[in-house]
């Protein structure tokens, strides 16, 4: 096959090019044909690669590596998820990042990805004739068929309008000669016939069902009618039921025809712009598909519906708006006829906002957004109304907690509500409801805002937090009047007192306002009292009796029982009190001045203020000469002269200097302070030394008591012999008393004592008798087996024993050689069967089979001759010195490999998994003589367990990897025990239970409702001879609706449970019959996993260990 694209190709990379004018031989033409097939297949791979990249949006490997990349099924499963997400969820894809594949290669679970891809194609409706087998991809048995299926899937999805078109790249891409030759060798290796990629369209059309064919014909008729341009013909074609078109409107047929004509013309222009072979062009490259036609019809319908909505908004007609919004073409979600007013308001606002920058009507998605917002507004309004009704209903009851829970509903949009003030909310709102009737949301908002502020004030009062109380009291939400910021402390003290009086109840708003008013009135009264006290002080200072009497008689003064006849006495007492208070003030002022740092006085004590004042007054009692000059002596002995009137000083003695007589200098003041402070300190010292004096007295008394005690102790020491005699007499008396009691007890129980003594004597005699009896048996002519076992190791080996042991070794060698030869022969026979099968399917020639048969015959003859040569050999005597040394070296090597399993355990994991079985057959099993002896079986078991520990330590990252990763050691262990011994153990353990199940023809363990239902229908029809009136194809739910089906499923479940119990009992009761190696390996597996994963639970470990 040579196409036009092949002739147009240039360069040596295009093997499809024929060199015109050159005559080729038959072999060259055959070689050219094979290379052309390889190049075509590489082009198909490149086409599939680019199509999958366009669908998945990710870069894939090169065409030469694409086959290997597809084997794990990850890319195929992603394609299935792209077009059938319900059939292939993302979480079902195994190893989506291919990390496991890159680490350890292909795993058996990768086949699940291929099966998911097949399920996706089945869901999409692709004909099953295109499906490849799982092994075609996973084992790479027929990879061209998988690529062929990808091409068919792309064309099928393109015709449905779900995927882009796959492009023909034949002759447009170039590959190196090496890549083409490698692909040719790969195709020759598997002997696979290349599928006909060019016939996919015809096969796909032939495989369509009757309904799909009718749809195809109807779509073609619509495209032809659109080309004619007749509206009536187009309308008739669109009305065809086979076209499966929905939401057709007669009034819009003209618009349908014009819209489809433009869409078809645009698609035809795009198809003409693309290059490609004309014979491979698909019809739907220029024709509109059914999906594209439906999309254009939906576009026209949506545009018409949007215009109807716009007209209804212009007319502000709620009913017209609802009818327009309910049109099926808009497919608006959440539309409710009760929300008409909200729809009208919201959509009008949206259109008005859009008209600022555009004159187009609202689009469908804008309508959906508006409907959603309007539904939310309507729901919020209904929820708020229901919440208000709930609050009113709760206020009519007597449950404050329920009222608070209703108020805290978010639909009410109220300020913060405090549950601790539930009684306050309930009481105040209940009173408001009785006064005004049913409360509305606005009234609740204002009331709750005020009550929450009152609750915060109460909370601050309970906590004693003044700052929080002040901030809560002055907030506007509290609504309290006449709050003076300067009286917040007094408000707090007053309301705390009121709160203590009412107890646990909260203060309401009226009580708070009343407390504030009380404090304000009290503050005003105190202010008036201060004014009156000021007038009284002025009268006392002036000595005016009449003014004093008038001030005392004022009501704001707060003085009761004022008698005018005692006015003079009032003046005298008040003057004396004023002078006393002035004297006290002088003391405080004197102490303050003396304590000033500028004065630099030392030893000033606040408690000596009175004495300071008195002594200083005595110092200045002499008359005042009223001289303005004073003299101050400084520390260096110099004098400084200071004028008190002018507040000026000089170092020179002024003319006519006279020192002020009442002025006391710093030294005199310091002397007065020092004397008074020293006297006060001495008095304080005597008072503070009282504890010291008491301690001295206590020490004296202690000394006297200790002296008396020492005298008593010296007396006791001098009388020690007498004390010892007294103690000895007392101990003797105690021991004699205990002995007499014990003797009395034995006399009372002498019969039991005699019986115990007789039993002890009998046991001693019996022990001596048995020892003597064993001595006689040991020295008899026929000693027992137990005695012989103790001394059998001392017996010498005879010549017969050595000959028997040598014969046993020879027989073991023959058995091992026969086992190896039989297994190799079995593998050769399997390969021969495969060759014969390929011959039957015309995949191989007769010459290849005959050649392989000759190779097997020659190989068998060589093996037989080798065996004869070994038999004719003379043993170790026939070996020369070099061979004997080599033999000894091999013996040491084999002994080391047998006794040190770590070396072979590491070698096992260096072998590929595909060659692990042959490696075990050829080396390990032969090295250990297939475990024929106890020693070999033990050493082989040690190898398995060490290899298992090594693999878990290096490769297992979580316990489940033992199940999913298919460990090499477990596979080798099962393969070793899959012989007569292991099969016999399973046959003996499970044979009776399974035999009963197989012989019981009436046993039913089906639990699928559909299968049970169909079986019941078939039995009914067989018994009655008539067709049942019930349908044959039903869903599981419909099948379970029949009582007979339920009864049969219940019986099947009971039978299944009984069968499971029998099998489980057979396994547990015959556990000892299983090979010891399997059980010991299972124990090592559990212990190793427990050591590496200490946090894993026992259930997880046993779940992993069960398959092992």
Textual characterization of the structure:
- This protein has 1108 residues and is mainly α.
- Among the domains are: 26-195, Actin-binding Protein, T-fimbrin, domain 1; 211-270 and 286-325, no CATH class; 886-1104, GTPase Activation - p120gap, domain 1 (GTPase Activation - p120GAP, domain 1, Orthogonal Bundle).
- Helix content is 68%, strand content 1%.
- The chain is built from 45 helices and three strands.
- It has a three-stranded antiparallel sheet, with no helix packed on it.
- Strand 1 and strand 2 (639-643) form a beta hairpin.
- The longest helix has 42 residues, at 799-840.
- It is extended, with a radius of gyration of 58 Å.
- GO terms for molecular function: actin filament binding; calmodulin binding; GTPase activator activity.
- Residues 42-157 form the Calponin-homology (CH) domain.
Sketch the major β-sheet. Answer: 3 strands, antiparallel
Which fold name fills CATH's third level, the topology of the domain at 886-1104? GTPase Activation - p120GAP, domain 1
Q: CATH superfamily membership of the domain at 886-1104, which one?
A: GTPase Activation - p120gap, domain 1
Kindly, what is the distance between the CA atoms of the first and last residues, rounded to a whole number of angstroms?
A: 55 Å
CATH class of the domain at 886-1104: Mainly Alpha
Number of alpha- plus pi-helical segments? 45
Average pLDDT, rounded to a whole number, is: 79
Poorly predicted segments: 1-21, 275-280, 870-874
Spatial order of strands in the largest sheet: 1-2-3
């Amino acid at each position: 096959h040579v196409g036009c694209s092949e002739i147009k190709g240039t360069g040596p990379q295009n093997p499809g090019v024929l060199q015109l004018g050159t005559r080729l031989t038959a072999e060259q033409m055959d070689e050219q044909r094979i290379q052309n097939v390889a190049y075509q297949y590489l082009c198909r791979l490149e086409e599939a690669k680019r199509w999958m990249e366009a669908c998945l949006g990710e870069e894939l490997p090169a065409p030469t590596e694409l086959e290997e990349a597809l084997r794990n099924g990850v890319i195929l499963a992603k394609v299935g998820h792209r077009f059938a997400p319900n059939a292939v969820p993302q979480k079902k894809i195994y190893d989506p990042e291919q990390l496991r594949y890159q680490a350890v290669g292909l795993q058996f679970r990768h086949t699940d990805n291929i099966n998911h891809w097949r399920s996706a194609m089945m869901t999409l409706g692709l004909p099953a004739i295109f499906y490849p087998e799982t092994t075609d991809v996973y084992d790479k048995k027929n990879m061209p068929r998988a690529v062929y299926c990808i091409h068919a899937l792309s064309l099928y999805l393109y015709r449905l309008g779900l995927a882009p078109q796959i492009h023909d790249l034949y002759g447009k891409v170039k590959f190196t000669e090496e890549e083409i030759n490698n692909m040719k060798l790969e195709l020759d290796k598997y002997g696979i016939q290349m599928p006909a990629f060019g016939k996919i369209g015809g096969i796909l059309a032939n495989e369509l069902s009757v309904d799909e064919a009718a749809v195809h014909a109807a779509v073609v008729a619509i495209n032809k009618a659109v080309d004619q341009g007749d509206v009536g013909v187009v309308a008739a074609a669109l009305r065809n039921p086979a076209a499966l078109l929905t939401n057709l409107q007669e009034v819009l047929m003209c618009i349908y025809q014009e819209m489809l004509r433009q869409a078809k013309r645009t698609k035809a222009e795009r198809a003409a712009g693309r290059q490609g072979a004309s014979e491979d062009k698909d019809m739907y490259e220029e024709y509109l598909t059914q999906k594209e036609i439906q999309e254009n019809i939906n576009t026209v319908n949506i545009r018409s519906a949007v215009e109807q909505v716009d007209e209804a908004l212009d007319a502000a007609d709620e009913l017209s708006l609802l009818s327009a919004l309910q049109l099926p073409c808009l497919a608006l979600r959440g539309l409710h006829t009760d929300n008409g007013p909200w729809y009208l308001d919201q959509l009008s606002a949206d259109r008005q906002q859009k008209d600022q920058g555009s004159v187009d009507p609202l689009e469908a998605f804008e309508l959906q957004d508006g409907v959603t917002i309007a539904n939310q507004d309507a729901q919020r309004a209904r929820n708020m109304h229901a919440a208000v009704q709930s609050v009113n209903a709760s206020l009519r009851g007597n449950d404050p907690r329920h009222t608070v829970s209703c108020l805290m509903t978010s639909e009410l949009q109220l300020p913060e509500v405090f549950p601790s003030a539930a009684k306050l909310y309930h009481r105040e709102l209940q009173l408001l409801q009785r006064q005004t009737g049913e409360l509305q949301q606005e009234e609740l908002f204002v009331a709750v805002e005020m009550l929450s502020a009152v609750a915060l004030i109460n909370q601050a009062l309970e906590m004693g937090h003044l700052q929080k109380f002040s901030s809560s009291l002055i907030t506007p939400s509290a609504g309290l009047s006449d709050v003076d910021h300067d009286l917040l402390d007094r408000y707090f003290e007053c309301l705390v007192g009121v709160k203590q009086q009412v107890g646990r109840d909260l203060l309401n708003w009226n009580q708070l306002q009343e407390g504030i008013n009380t404090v304000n009135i009290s503050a005003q009264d105190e202010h008036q009292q201060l004014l009156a006290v000021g007038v009284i002080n002025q009268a006392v200072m002036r000595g005016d009796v009449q003014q004093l009497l008038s001030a005392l008689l004022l009501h704001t003064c707060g003085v009761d029982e004022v008698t005018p006849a005692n006015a003079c006495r009032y003046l005298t007492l008040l003057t004396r009190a004023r002078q006393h208070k002035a004297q006290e003030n002088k003391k405080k002022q004197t102490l303050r001045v003396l304590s000033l740092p500028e004065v630099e006085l030392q030893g000033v004590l606040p408690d000596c203020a009175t004495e300071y004042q008195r002594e200083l007054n005595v110092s200045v009692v002499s008359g005042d000469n009223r001289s303005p000059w004073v003299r101050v002596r400084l520390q260096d002995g110099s004098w400084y002269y200071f004028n008190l009137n002018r507040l000026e000083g000089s170092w020179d003695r002024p003319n006519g200097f006279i020192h002020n007589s009442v002025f006391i200098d710093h030294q005199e003041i310091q002397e007065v302070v020092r004397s008074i402070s020293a006297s006060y300190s001495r008095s304080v010292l005597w008072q503070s030394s009282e504890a010291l004096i008491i301690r001295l007295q206590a020490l004296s008394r202690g000394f006297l008591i200790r002296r008396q005690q020492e005298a008593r102790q010296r007396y006791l020491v001098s009388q020690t012999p007498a004390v010892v005699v007294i103690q000895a007499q007392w101990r003797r008396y105690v021991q004699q008393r205990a002995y007499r009691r014990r003797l009395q007890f034995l006399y009372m129980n002498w019969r039991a004592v005699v019986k115990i003594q007789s039993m002890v004597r009998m046991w001693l005699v019996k022990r001596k008798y048995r020892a003597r009896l064993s001595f006689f048996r040991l020295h008899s002519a026929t000693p027992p087996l137990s005695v012989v076992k103790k001394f059998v190791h001392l017996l010498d080996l005879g010549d017969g024993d050595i000959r028997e042991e040598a014969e046993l070794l020879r027989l073991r060698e023959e058995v091992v050689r026969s086992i190896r030869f039989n297994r190799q022969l079995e593998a050769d026979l399997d390969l021969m069967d495969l060759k014969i099968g390929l011959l039957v399917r015309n995949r191989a020639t007769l010459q290849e089979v005959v050649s392989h048969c000759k190779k097997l015959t020659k190989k068998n003859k060589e093996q037989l001759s080798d065996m004869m040569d070994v038999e004719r050999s003379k043993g170790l005597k026939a070996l020369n010195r070099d061979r004997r040394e080599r033999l000894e070296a091999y013996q040491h090597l084999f002994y080391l490999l047998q006794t040190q399993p770590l070396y072979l355990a590491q070698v096992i994991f260096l072998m590929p998994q595909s060659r692990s079985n042959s490696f075990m057959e050829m080396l390990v099993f032969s090295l250990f003589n297939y475990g024929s002896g106890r020693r070999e079986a033990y050493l082989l078991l040690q190898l398995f367990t060490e290899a298992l520990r090594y693999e878990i330590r290096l490769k297992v990252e979580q316990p489940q990897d033992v199940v999913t990763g298919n460990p090499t050691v477990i596979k080798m262990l099962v393969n070793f025990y899959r012989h007569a011994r292991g099969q016999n153990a399973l046959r003996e353990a499970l044979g009776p239970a399974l035999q009963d199940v197989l012989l019981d023809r009436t046993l039913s363990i089906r639990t699928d409702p559909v299968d049970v239902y169909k079986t019941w229908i078939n039995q009914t029809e067989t018994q009655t001879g008539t067709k049942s009136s019930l349908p044959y194809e039903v869903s599981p739910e419909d099948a379970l609706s029949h009582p007979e089906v339920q009864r049969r499923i219940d019986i099947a479940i009971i039978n299944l449970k009984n069968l499971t119990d029998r099998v489980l009992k057979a396994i547990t009761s015959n556990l000892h019959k299983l090979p010891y190696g399997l059980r010991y390996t299972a124990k090592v597996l559990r212990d190793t996993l427990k050591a590496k994963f200490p946090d894993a639970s026992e259930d997880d470990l046993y779940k992993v260990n069960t398959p092992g």
